[in-house]
TrEMBL record, chain A:
It comes from Paracoccus lichenicola. The lineage of its organism: Bacteria, Pseudomonadati, Pseudomonadota, Alphaproteobacteria, Rhodobacterales. This is Uncharacterized protein.
From TrEMBL, chain B:
SUPFAM superfamilies: Protein kinase-like (PK-like). Pfam families: APH. GO terms for molecular function: transferase activity. The keyword RNA-binding does not apply. The keyword Repressor does not apply. Residues 109-313 form the Aminoglycoside phosphotransferase domain. It comes from the Bacteria. This is Phosphotransferase. CDD domains: ACAD10_11_N-like. Keywords: Transferase.
Length: 184, 409
């Protein structure tokens, strides 16, 4: 059984109960940073159980964005790379044992393929370029929603009431790759 | 199409130790003002250097003594050094100085030393800040500025010394405004006292006549051209390229749109760059604003940059009933632009405002997603734990960016 949560909980308690009172009273920076450190560790504790699910979400989301972009710019150069990143993403997402590092790398590759196409967009016909821009904007919505939920405990979101539960958002792309494979 | 490296994820870390070619390629691609170019180039050249090492108050005091001696400050005595907290990007020490002032005789004053860390969340110029504090003395409340170490000769990093300004950035009663005063809720009574001053000071900054002044740290953009907007766009894009650790297609869409829609400058103003709650100090009893701080992002350019900045969603808050949005916690949004035009005599152009709103979102994302992560990753600042926290602001700004872009496409 993993004890990371217990470890972080013990560290936070020690920082608060033992370390904080021993700080020099004329060192407000140290006190401020200790508060930030404890807050970040508590945040990390609340996210420990979701770290791997987040990597899977990010790959599925990057794959969905790549598919939207492929549809928006059919025939434009660079779509072959998009196709290969989508296929690679599908393979990884179909593998329940895919390693976190592999998921992260595939996400980076999918986003890179999309970015390269967007960066070349000023050379595309205006209507294609507009379609592409809208595809990226619409395709970024789930990522933004998930990140708002992820960072909600930081207390910096001006409209926390409109944020859906993190667990719901992390499951948003569940099964996308199977549906897509069936459709294709 | 470039060949993908073995690990794309890791390839972004060339920015941890950038080659001269990498630095030059980004400089060539994104021309900016001369001072900004020098600062960003120096940032990249120093990036592979050691992480920030905590400097002690004794060390700062020793550096200060050397500086004052070299500058010929007579019979000085430094007492009561202490850290200031609350800022994100600069190291700040308060101290009391007693010295022989050739103009005023023996005097004793509480002062602030403001110094760069090895690398901060904003790479900005202490020299520019010094020039602007001098220029606005007597125009709006600013602290008197005394000495400057422009290139870290005495303090290892650039530093500035100015008068300590008493006051608070938010009422002691409020729990809002968690990061540098963003979203502060002042409450109805303080709001009524602060809002007219806020508007008057903003107008004074934008109306400031600098025709008879020459600034050594700010370039003058040409009115009737896109130069002013392009310098700011290139600055934000350059920072994103220098610091990022990932591809983010939404940022590419924004860059394309900004590039294709660069506005002309109708009137050159001093732009404060961070004019908002959290950056002025006021007396809690009287509600009088005593000092405007943080001029580090100032430049000569388009007033819409400031207007878009202070009306950005994270800078203010909604009333309890959710119906009224208060700009910087002070002025209802639906009154804000009319009041600005009445006070300043300057017009507000919705298209320019929209362009700068998108640019500001781009800049905040570059800062919170790219720079904060790069600096904290390399341990370069005195506030790394705070820098890791600002990522929590990014998704809200990303949402605003996507909504603004969609409206304009």
């Amino acid at each position: 059984m993993d004890h990371s949560d217990t470890g972080l909980r013990a560290i936070c308690k020690s920082l608060t109960d033992v370390i904080a009172p021993s700080l020099q009273p004329d060192d407000p920076l140290a006190r401020e940073q200790l508060g930030l450190i404890v807050h970040y560790l508590e945040f990390l504790r609340s996210r420990l159980d979701h770290l791997h699910a987040r990597e899977r979400f990010q790959l599925a989301d990057a794959r969905a964005l790549a598919a939207r972009v492929r549809n928006a710019v059919q025939g434009a150069s660079g779509t072959a790379t998009l196709e290969s990143t989508i296929a690679a993403a599908d393979d990884l997402l179909a593998d329940p044992w895919a390693a976190t590092g592999d998921l992260r790398e595939a996400t980076a590759r999918a986003n890179h393929a999309v970015s390269e196409i967007v960066q070349a967009a000023p050379g595309l016909p205006a209507e294609v370029s507009r379609r592409l821009s809208l595809a990226v904007i619409d395709g970024s919505g789930d990522r933004i929603a998930m990140e708002r939920a992820w960072y909600l405990p930081m207390g910096l979101d001006p409209s926390p009431a409109e944020i859906l539960p993190l667990e719901t958002l992390l499951r948003r792309h569940a099964g996308d790759h199977e549906n897509s494979a069936t459709a294709e | 199409m470039t060949a993908a490296p073995a690990s794309l994820h890791d390839s972004f870390n060339i920015r941890d130790n950038p080659t001269p070619e990498f630095i030059r390629a980004i400089r060539d691609r994104f021309p900016v003002e001369r001072e900004v170019d020098e600062l960003l180039t120096r940032k990249m050249q120093n990036r592979s250097g050691p992480p920030y090492r905590r400097i002690t108050l004794d060390e700062l005091e020793a550096n200060l003594s050397r500086m004052l001696t070299d500058l010929g400050v007579a019979n000085f005595v430094i007492t009561k050094p202490g850290w200031f907290t609350g800022g994100v990007s600069k190291i700040q020490m308060g101290f009391t100085l007693e010295w022989d002032d050739p103009a005023k005789g023996r005097r004793k004053e509480r002062l602030v030393l403001r110094m760069d860390p090895s690398e901060g969340s904003n790479t900005t110029s202490r020299s520019r800040e010094y020039e602007l504090l001098e220029a606005f003395r007597g125009i709006i409340p600013v602290p008197a500025v005394y000495w400057l170490d422009p290139d870290g000769r005495w303090f290892t990093q650039p530093a500035l010394i100015y008068a300590f300004a008493p006051g608070v950035t938010k009422s002691r009663a409020t729990q809002t405004g968690q990061v540098s005063g963003l979203g502060t809720n002042f409450g109805p009574e303080l709001r009524a006292k602060l809002a007219p001053q806020f508007m008057a000071h903003l107008a004074a900054v934008h109306d400031f006549d600098f025709s008879s002044r020459s600034f050594s740290t700010m370039d003058m953009p040409e009115a009737g051209t896109t130069q002013a907007a392009l310098w700011q766009l290139n600055r934000a894009r350059r920072i994103w390229e220098e610091d990022r650790g990932e591809d983010f297609p939404l940022m590419d869409v924004a860059a394309n749109w900004l590039e294709a829609n660069v506005p002309l400058l109708d009137h050159a103003s001093i732009v404060h760059g961070d004019f908002r709650s959290g950056n002025f100090l006021f007396d809690e009893e009287t509600g009088q604003i005593g000092a405007w701080l943080d001029w580090e992002r100032a430049h000569i350019g388009d007033r819409h940059r400031d207007l878009a900045w202070m009306t950005q969603s994270t800078m203010g808050h909604y009333s309890e009933d959710g119906k009224t949005y208060f700009v910087c916690g002070l002025i209802p949004l639906d009154e804000f632009f009319d009041r600005y035009t009445r006070t300043s005599g300057l017009s507000v152009d919705p298209d320019r405002l929209a362009w700068y709103r998108i640019l500001n979102c781009y800049q905040i994302i570059a800062s919170t997603v790219a720079t904060a992560n790069r600096v904290a990753r390399l341990g370069k600042s005195h506030q790394d734990p705070l820098l890791t926290r600002v990522k929590g602001m990014a998704p809200t700004v990303e949402l605003e960016l996507s909504l603004c872009l969609k409206e304009r496409l």
